[in-house]
Amino acid sequence: MADTFAYCLKQGILGVGWLVDEIQETADWDTFYKVAVNIHKDLKTCAYIRERVQKDDLVWTRDTQGNYYLARVLSGWERREVDPSDRTVFGFE
Fold first, then answer.
1. Which of 2, 3, 61, 81 has its CA 20 to 30 A from that of 88?
2. Against a cut of 0.85, is the pTM above it?
3. Whose CA is closest to 81, among 13, 2, 1, 3?
4. Which has the minimum average pLDDT: 21-30, 39-48, 69-78, 82-91?
5. What does the H/E/C string look like for the chain?
């Protein structure tokens, strides 16, 4: 988790999601969901964030040492592909 948090902090992202090999990058939620729902049993958290978190909202998160971070949302939901060498950081292997 510490490596995942450090990666997200460095990239300036708040990452929540599930791996979908068929779709590397998209901002089209419906297409992503149609594929992901057949692979993963529970997409409630990802769907909740997509539906409720909007641009300019403030969100907080916490690192593994208990430090809190406050962030402003700059854009809507999108699926991004990470460098394959970073996949182990996210537990995609």
1. 61
2. no
3. 13
4. 82-91
5. CHHHHHHHHHHCCCCCCCCCCCCCCECCHHHHHHHHCCCCCCCHHHHHHHHHCCCCCEEEEECCCCCEEEEECCCCCCECCCCHHHCCCCCCC
